[in-house]
Amino acid sequence: MKNIILDGESLSIKDVCQIVKGKAIPYIDESVYSKIKKSRSILEDIVHKEPIYGVTTGYGEMVYQLISINLETELQTNLIRSHAACIGNLFSKEQCKAILTVRINAFCKGNSGVRRELVEQLLLYLKNDIIPAIPEIGSLGASGDLGQLAHLALTCIGEGYVFDDNGNKTDTINLLKKCNIAPLELKYKEGLALINGTSAMTGLACLNLENAVEQIKQAEIITALILEVLKASSGAFQKEGHLARPHKGQLDCAENLLELLKGSTLILSHSDLKNELMSQKQDGFSTETKTYIQKAYTLRCVPQILGAIRDTIEYAKNVVTIEVNSSNDNPLFFEGKEIFHGGNFHGQPVSFVMDYCSIALTQLGIVSERRINRLLNKHLSNGLPEFLAKSEPGLNCAFEGVQYPATALVAENRCICSPASIQSIPSNGDNQDVVSMGLIATRNNRKILDNNYYILAIEAICGVQAVDIMNSYKNLSEAGKITYNFIREYVETLNEDRYMSNDIENIFSKLKIGELLSRIENANIKLR
Fold first, then answer.
1. What per-residue confidence (pLDDT) applies to 420?
2. Which of 8, 280, 421, 464 could tie 108 with a disulfide, CB 3.0–4.6 Å?
3. Where are the alpha helices (DSSP H) in 84-170?
4. Residues 224 and 187 reside in one and the same domain
């Protein structure tokens, strides 16, 4: 297992995900601890000489209250206890682990003024799977994710809750005793440093974005199968056409589709369509044919649509990677400089890009649902029976009911993707008079990703049903056969009406863990 350094400079989104999944071991070297020590020394040198926000003053709107330096522990402890007021369902253990990872890395930047002992305690938690249990609701995204990070901070003093070995919530102090770990006593600024940052929205954003990359590739794989059964044209993915409009995502998607369609005898070239069209030409000014030389946008413009979604995710990854490697609390300490009393805790950058990704991913679901409709509508499906009924349509409704959840989820995604980043409501005595709602944007993004997996599951199930009706398995590309076999491993052919919810749930759960993508990659089909 590889080691990944937490240094506040080089941690990638992929690194965060590998740590969270137990595929890498995080560590901090002495050069990083030297930065942390220097920052702490700056704080301790000036704390007796001048007022420092949150160290010798009250918090938020109560900044005008001067607090005795003799009350350092009480001040920091009261802060995290009072702000640990989040509600609702807990984030998953993986999500909470991502939050913890990103918070440690922020301290490793070396500007927060915390002690080495605090960072070591957090790293000990991370390496020993002592993961704070954090509720979902309660962040305004400025001053950072105060509430969620207060739940994390409480565990440092032996309070609050962590996950046990079974993934259930348990008292922190009991698990610490079991592991022979002593709680800490917080010192100057440490309570504030722990909670005043963007690590909840940023940690979750890392998981979302890594998942979004997988989702796009699996959408391309399923799309390729549908292109085959609807006998679309591969000419729309011709490299030269995309080089004339060289958006990277578009180029990558077009190349992936050509790779996925290799070996198919169902897919048509533009020449095939042209010859088919001309074979029907008759004398006269106009001849009505049965051939469409260009296909509908959901079959022809896939690189332009999914490619734009790819580029959106890449842009978001760049923003989130910067945030992962940032000091995002307040105040910050720099050698030989004034204390920085600023607002790096404000989550606007992450909030904006999570909203942007939600809009893009909503379009992914829209395109998938429209192809489902094309498969089920006998006027659009290239000769397939209505609703893909294999026998006795009318008596059997076949996939008629299956389309409804896909359509409903598209509508739900459209509601959810309404930007959270512009929903600012002043709080904290109007000290926090404009806030980012970044964690809401990130949570919304996660919900859209999940909804899309259901939509893609339905599209894939419909696609393999079409293969069976056409008796065309032997004509599929290698990737098409892998996709068909993957679905048929969990879902039988629909010969007559049956209960379908479990079928959809089965494929949803497999797509969510990237199993289809893994099978394609294991067959040495290389996707960009």
1. 95
2. 8
3. 93-107, 116-127, 146-156
4. no
For 212-268, the pLDDT digits (tens) are 999 999 999 999 999 999 998 888 999 999 999 999 999 999 999 999 999 999 988
In this predicted structure, what is the pLDDT of residue 466?
98
Burial label, 1 (beta-carbon count in 10 A; 0-12, 13-18, 19+): exposed
Find the radius of gyration of the CA atoms of the chain: 27
* pLDDT for res 280: 75
Q: Is 53 a catalytic residue?
A: yes
- The verdict on 508 and 378 lying in the same domain is yes
Count Cβ atoms within 10 A of the Cβ of residue 73 and give its class: 0-12 exposed, 13-18 middle, 19 or more buried.
middle
* Number of compact structural domains in the chain: 2
Q: Is residue 412 part of a domain?
A: yes
Choosing from 27, 33, 53, 484, which is the catalytic residue? 53
In Å, how far are 33, 196, 441 from 134, measured between CA atoms?
A: 27, 15, 17
Q: CATH number of the domain that 385 lies in?
A: 1.20.200.10
CA distance 214 to 445: 15
Provide the domain limits for residue 404: 206-278+293-327+342-522
Closest C-alpha to 212, from 311, 302, 305, 135: 311
**Is 287 within the bounds of a domain?**
no
- 308 in the same domain as 185: no
Is there a domain that residue 211 lies in?
yes
pTM of model > 0.85? yes
